[in-house]
Amino acid sequence: MKGDLTFLLHIALILLFANVGGFISRKLKQPAVLGQIVMGLLLGPSVFNLIKATEGIAHMAEIGVILLMFIAGLETDLDDLKASSRSSTLIALGGVAFPFGLGILAVLLSKPEATLNEGLFLGVILTATSVSITVQALRELGHLRTRQGIGILGAAIIDDVAGIILLTLIIGMISPTQSESIFLVLGKISLFFVFSIGFGVIFSKILTKYSNIVSRDNRVLTAALIFCFLLAFVAEELGVAAIIGAYFTGVVFSTTPHRNRVSHEIQSIAYALFTPIFFINIGLEVNINSAFGVLGLSGAIILAAVLGKIIGCGIGAKLSKFTNREALQVSIGMIPRAEVALIVTNLGLKNGIIDKDIFTSVILMVLVSTVITPPLLKLAFGDKGKKESRKEECVKGVV
């Protein structure tokens, strides 16, 4: 029995260290998420190896990121999201094209024996953006609902879809037997968005019409969780990341009278248990010691990953009439890579498209891109920007 309940001790330690890391990080005037990721590194195989990244912890971490993106959807203004569609598209296209090209160059220049197939596949890996880190950092800095925050969220959705299509094309070229038809992939993605929009309109009207009934006996929270997990599952099954389904569910609930109540109750659950586990788990899954043997390749891949988003997304933002500083803020917010990059990397290793050196280098890239984003966002926005953002939101609330 004692052995079966060891996971309780691990969860207690994760929550304890997550809170300590968050406290220290805030004292150093950095977002709490940075301290939580660093604590994950200390607890994991990179340093003390006190806790292993078990399947149970991974599942709780997955719930954490899903709830985090659901909260981001709740805090998104639908009109702002629609208005930013053009800018988000330009940002996303730049954020796919440049990392893809630089990823190919990074492999071919830093690893002479590498094949073009390895370069193409790494390029696909670098296109994926994981905004869960950025979302949390922007929330702490008070900028999630700004034009830059909305642009980042919209671009992340688009570059996720673009990355999936690109992955399908590349696998089809490299290993045709492993790939679905590109038309089938496009059909499934289209089906998800049609389903999401239809579901959103109908569900929003039902919640609004029967608001009094739904509000009884805590039914709103239960309904929110049911549909959040359901749409996340549907998204994953149709080839779109689960976090996109969760985000869309949040956007749906943001159009109902229950928005504030659901946001408050979901945040209580998420930030008390699940999201700290998610950020700690990032550190638990990384062993930076194995990366020291491929520092040259790792450095090239990290440089390509960071510069690809900075340049590509920055150009897209400038074409969308963002100022230089705003373009920099947007491009920094698009830097992190996490679950999608890891999934694609595992796929490449499993199918023999990439080798262990590239796999290890991508793991280090994920770690570095995750750790540097919160402090860079803090630096890019600054305290003055935060105060101005709060003033703008207060004015909007009065109007």
Could you characterize the architecture of this molecule?
With 399 residues, this protein is mainly alpha-helical. It has one domain (3-398): Up-down Bundle (Na+/H+ antiporter like fold), CATH 1.20.1530.20. Helices cover 79% and strands 0% of the residues. It is built from 17 helices and no strands. The longest helix has 43 residues, at 356-398. The protein is globular. The model is unreliable at 385-399 (pLDDT under 50).
Give average pLDDT, whole number.
82
Number of strands: 0
Largest sheet: none
Strand content: under 5%
CATH topology: Na+/H+ antiporter like fold
What is the percent of helical residues? over 70%
Which class best fits the helix and strand makeup? Answer: mainly alpha
**CATH architectural designation:** Up-down Bundle
Element-level helix/strand string: HHHHHHHHHHHHHHHHH
* Backbone shape: globular
Radius of gyration from the alpha-carbon trace, in angstroms: 21 Å
Give unreliable regions as ranges. 385-399
Number of domains: 1
Number of H/I helices: 17
CATH class: Mainly Alpha
Measured between the Cα atoms of the first and last residue, the distance is 59 Å
